[in-house]
Amino acid sequence: MRTGQRRERRRPGSTGADGTGGGRPGPWPAAGTALLTLVAACVTFFTLSSPATADPIGACTATRGSIVAVDFGPFGGSVERGCDTTPTTGYELLHEGGFTTAGTGHDGPAFICRIGHGRTGTQYPTPDKESCVLTPPATAYWSYWVAKPGDDDWSYSQYGAMDRKLSDGDVDAWVFGGTDVGGSTGRPTFSPDDVRAEGGSTPTPGPTLTGAPGAVDVPGAAAWLKGRLTDGERIVDEGATDPNHFLTVQTAYALAAAEGDSQALGKVTDFLTSTAGPFAYPNGTDKAPDATNAARLALLASVTERDPRDFGGHDLIGDLVAHICPAGPESGQPTPGCSAKGDFGDAGYTDGQSLAVLALVRAEEEPPAVTVERLAQLQCRDGGVTSVLIRPGENCDGDAGTTGLAALALHAAGGQDTAVGKARAYLVKNQRADGAFPAYTGSPSAGVIGTAYAAQALRALGEKERADAAVGWLSREQTGSGGFGFEEAQTDPQLYPTSLAVVAGTGKSLADLTVKEREPTGTPTGGPGTTPPPPGGGPDLAAGVAYLTSADNLKQGRYYTAGPGTSRADFGLTIDGAYALAATGLDNDKLRGIVDFLDDRGTDGEGRTIRDYMKIGTEYASGGFIGKTAVLAESVGRDPRDFAGQDLIAALEKAVCAEASAAPDRSCAAEGNYTYATSVFSQSLGIIAQLRAGEEEAAAGPVAYLAGLQHDSGAWPSLIPATGDSDVDSTAMAAMALDLAGEDAAVADALEWIAGKQRPGGGFESSVGTSVNSTALAIQGLSLDAGAYADEIAAARKFLAAQQNDDGGFNVAAEGQRGSDLRASTQAVGGSTGISFGLLERSLEGTSPQPTPSPSPSPSPSRSGGTPDIVTPGESGGSADGGSGGGLASTGVQVTTLAALAALLVLGSGV
């Protein structure tokens, strides 16, 4: 998937591949006029947007407004710049800067296919080079690059232009050509400074600190923590019975900082010593340890002057060193628990890598150079450190907490002065005037965790004044009970942020925290346990369904739109929502309303029907989209041979490719592929539809083709033709399809591979981080053998529960921008049930037709809560080029208040 123009694994340069975006819509001056264009050869429609009256370049400065640069070099032009003095989103910047754009016929204006300069400037590429009917190929499209103030290089945009929220001094660039999925090729040939306002900008040394000094009430916080202990020795989550080892260790760190060698600390440490096995070695003591948990205990041993080489009978240090990853997936060999060479096995996240390096240093064991170098590789261009163990070329987005902890580890390890210096500069630059740090990247509010870790690092790096300012802010966030919430102004104290605030408040850090040796206080009580999940065990499905069916989301009770401010239906997303409702059975009336809308060929605000999505009867018929629609019909008891006035099963059979198509025709990758099914996800949906309809013989070719795409590891790639990657979403989907086909061995290999990709917190990773979408699909896949993978499924459901918001919706991922996302929520609700698409059934008996409300002239702009939409891999909301993992995603256009938008009729499409 592409970013900027993106599906879930993205290429630089666009919004969600399905034509959606998460950025808030802003007003769009009505200076543009509608343009009707007939495209020769492939007569379809595309939408054109006109520019506002552009602010003069001189109106933008290094500290006011944002600049956009568009490189028309491939078309014989030059790099043109534009300015927006009141920047909101990347999309608005492009248009406010004096550029026009055109979308594609299939995706609408939400995929930037052409860009022109000025009101009358030619838009490129011209129609004779690119029809803009379908999503352009990955080798020739407008990619999107971004830079923040002070950045000396471009970053490949992991958010589309509509999702990117701009700040003063930001710079954007659009470049025509091709990139790989990591954005490591196709970079702009000019630097951010080359196009900045006033000829460039100089990074500032950070804000002038204005926050009042203050001190954390350490005894009060310690007393609150001790009051949370069960039997004075362990933390047990509310409603649970097993101990939460992670929070127990954190409490021990805080007690060591607050009280030194105390009886309370001794009792907690004794408990952790006695239960070290199940916490540090969840797969058995004869297997590799969980690096993060083992490192936590090893650090505690050093802090309390116990022996990390004999902690509860375990050599934590030796086992950490013995299980360092020799390679990552790039080796072509199975590398469970390893994302790259130098990872500590199963570290999962950057904090695990940092803690393991610190643990070795504290134990006077020199960390292997490859582990320290790997940690340094996780530093972004701006000096921040990403929380995810990314691979080279992947998106890098740092945060204060991760950067602070990594800086402590790199500083302690030595030999990384450049990386440490960049981390210090990043922290200085990102500290607020009141001393606090953002709760997460782009957060408008400050967070206790990030501020506490940053304070530890700043003090260790000699920035005493700034560390004191951070502690001063922490002191003002302490609640009357003595504890701390996660973010500013929160009054509900929590264990994790409180433990970190105590360490920072004492002026210590995990790099130097220590107490004197003590004698054990007695026989430890309690027994082995596992870290308990959040209470409840899984998402609140009723709340999730209420979110999906709310009037703000489900327009007229019938469909979801392609983005805020548009009445254009996103049919793929609408079917996703129907799948979720069918899986839960919690609102069959609303499910009936969606199904009837699709089956009766109801029209959206642009007059489009489900037939425009499938393209049956045209040269662009998409087997994946036909299959997806057919699976819904089959799941609710409708006839797929007569749905929306079409025989979907016959259309699927017709869509099976007899051979690979010759370039430039991209319709067929190989024999057995469905036409325009450019992802494993789409191929799998077609197979499921055919098999559920009893068409085993007709599906034999597609099944054989899908089976042939499986890697030796058991995984599937995301794209068709295969790109060599391995993808959780696609592997789960392929497993569901081949389970219906009786390919038991292939399914077993797939499930084993999926299980091996689970992160310590229960989630599964994708390009957006620890992904709700991927985790939900993994649950569906693993549920094909629920008995064997019960623990993994339970952990994944608990991860989803932790990502559910108060409105019932779900975040896109554990990292990044927060807020409920409609697409992620459809997958989370349906996926958490564990029901395979091959087995999904929901009777509509007892329901009645839903009333059809009058069309609303303007959908609510609050659909996605400002977060990036994720796309069911292979979907892209109506793009025939759908796919996850390197496919072209949509280019940064959400339809705002489009006074200058024209929709052109589809001619010759059979609709």
Distance between the termini: 29 Å
The low-confidence runs, each spanning 5 or more residues with pLDDT under 50, are: 1-47, 199-204, 517-536, 854-911
- Give, in spatial order, the strands making up the sheet with the most strands: 4-3-9-7-8
> Mean of the pLDDT scores?
82
Question: Any idea what the shape is?
Answer: globular
What does this protein structure show overall?
This protein has about 900 residues and is an alpha+beta fold. It contains 28 helices and 17 strands. The strands form 6 sheets. It has a 5-stranded mixed beta sheet with strand order 4-3-9-7-8, covered by helices on one side. The longest helix is centred in the N-terminal third of the chain and has 15 residues, at about 245-260. The chain is globular and about 75 Å long. The protein starts with a strand and ends in a 9-residue tail after the last strand.
Write the layout of secondary structure elements.
Blueprint lengths: L4 E2 L41 E2 L16 E6 L7 E6 L5 H7 L2 E4 L11 E4 L23 E7 L7 E2 L14 E7 L14 H4 L22 H10 L1 E2 L3 E2 L9 H15 L3 H12 L1 H5 L10 H13 L12 H7 L27 H13 L6 H9 L7 E2 L11 E2 H14 L3 H14 L17 H13 L3 H14 L17 H11 L35 H8 L22 H14 L3 H12 L10 H5 L8 H13 L12 H7 L25 H13 L3 H13 L19 H13 L3 H13 L7 E3 L2 E3 H11 L7 H13 L19 H10 L58 E2 L9 E2 L9
Parallel strand pairs: 3-9
Antiparallel strand pairs: 1-16, 2-5, 2-17, 3-4, 5-6, 7-8, 7-9, 10-11, 12-13, 14-15
Helix pairs in contact: 3-4, 3-15, 4-5, 4-7, 4-15, 7-9, 9-11, 11-12, 11-13, 13-14, 13-15, 16-17, 16-28, 17-18, 17-20, 17-28, 20-21, 20-22, 22-23, 22-24, 24-25, 24-26, 26-27, 26-28
